[in-house]
Design a protein that fits this description.
Blueprint lengths: L36 H28 L3 E8 L5 H8 L8 E5 L5 H4 L5 H4 L8 E5 L8 H4 L18 H18 L2 E9 L2 H13 L9 H7 L2 H15 L6 E5 L3 H19 L8 H16 L2
Parallel strand pairs: 1-3, 1-4, 2-3, 4-5
Amino acid sequence: MSDRIIEPVPSEFLVPFDGTFRVADAPTAPSDGERGKQHKKRHKQALAAIVDEMRELQRAMYAFDSHSLLLVFQAMDAAGKDGTIRAVMSGINPAGCQVSSFKAPSKQELDHDFLWRVATRLPERGRIGIFNRSHYEEVLVVRVHPEYLESQRLPGKLDLATIWQERFESIRNFEQHLARNGTTILKFWLNVGRDEQRRRFIDRIDEPESNWKFEPGDVAERRHWSAYMRAYEEALCATSRPWAPWYAIPADDKPFMRRTVADLVRRALKAIRPRYPEPTAAERAAMQGYREELLRDD
């Protein structure tokens, strides 16, 4: 791996790079020693401390202006993407962060290749970019609903036996290109269990203040759960690489999930080793001259 690429942050939730990941083996909840009401306060306190440290790291990266950080979030509905992004990035200077949400592609986006719309929203050097859903929709939702390919007007004869592997290859090459040019990539699959998703959907119906969150289409997509799990498994196996690792984060316990994601982001920022630029001797001398001028200015 190129020495310009930041090494992946180690974690028990890191999806291996050899294609052996299995959804059935990935936990949706933390171990008993990390979940429950008795641990909620501890996770929130740890999250607050991590956010404070991230704030300083992000300021240095913004000034350093050499690297960017791209965080990709994918999940089934009600896994907690929005809340996790909000909690983890709560202390980050908005000037150094940008969030992009990807829904059904527009007509303009359909007139381009499937990576175009995410390429236009990549973070600049010194900034953190967050993708709430991403280019992976094209090998997840579109794979479960291949009829969506009809609106993409792809050239040549469509071959469902090869198109997904071709897209995996395009994604791997795209992400490796970004990593080689200074973008550190972390991808999070927030792995919510089917029973927990059902409970959250019912809560959205039963709690008046949460009614606005309920979408009938989410229940319709739930009917394709097995197909989505197969699509996730293959996508994560095909695209978790040292330059763009996936992390399968248990999502049934939100405080644990948010703390875990925040810790991985913090460690990735530290691995970039951002630092404030140091002026040269000539620049220091010039600044002293300006300082003396300002002191004389009345």
